[in-house]
Amino acid sequence: MKKIVTHINPDLDAVAAVWLLKRFLLGWQEAEVGFVRADDKQIDKDNNDLLYVDVGLGKLDHHLTNQYLSAAKLCWDYIKEIRKGESINELDGQAIERTVEVVTEIDNACDLSWPEARNDRFQFYLHNLVEGWRELPLNDVEVVEEGFKMLDTFLLNLKNKIRAEEELLTKAKTFKTKWGKGIGLETGNKHFLFFAESQGYQVVFIKNPKSGGVKIYARPDSKVDLTKAYQKVKKLDSQSDWFLHSSKKLLLNQASVAQMRPTKLNMKEIMEILQDE
Description:
The chain is α/β, with parallel strands linked by helices. The protein has eight helices and nine strands.
């Protein structure tokens, strides 16, 4: 049986490296995961079913060099080399590259220069959660399993962010409001809302092509007040359900926590309502 070995008390780099191998190296999805001390140098180089990761001073251990590397980067490069004849989905490839880049920054202590480093929210970042797990009564297998769940989620969110970046450039419709620039898109990707706001759009909306539901967001630091828009959609679309958040910056016709009748208004009509504000 195939086996991946990393060091005891695994950090984010070790967890991410093992995750990459089990998720993306063909034939290694069911590999067993084992743990050794960091000073264990006993590597069976002739065993093709055994990989040492972030330990053992082998090909997947970056501690042999002072270069800007990580075990995750070594593993990803190794996977790409092995899979030359087996193409990797372009979106997966982009997301994995960006994931590995972040893990490498963290493993080289570059995260200390991030603007968020002094803020309490920095403790919610995955590498700090891993550090916490290592101090809780969790064994190494449990730390790896929890890390896998988080990395799967991170990769999914990153792929949706990449989709949002592409959608903003190629499919979205821009418009003007009295508060500044607005943008709308027919998509089921809710990450578009957050990404467009981060790009400076004051009002952003999406219309789900499957359900027909609409979500309208305004930047929290803006002067946008969606009260009049709410009154207009209620009048024009009385057979649908709309909810105006108390902040007056969220106007929802679709929610994951409630059943709402989707609007009959189309993209152009919603855009015109927001333009007329």
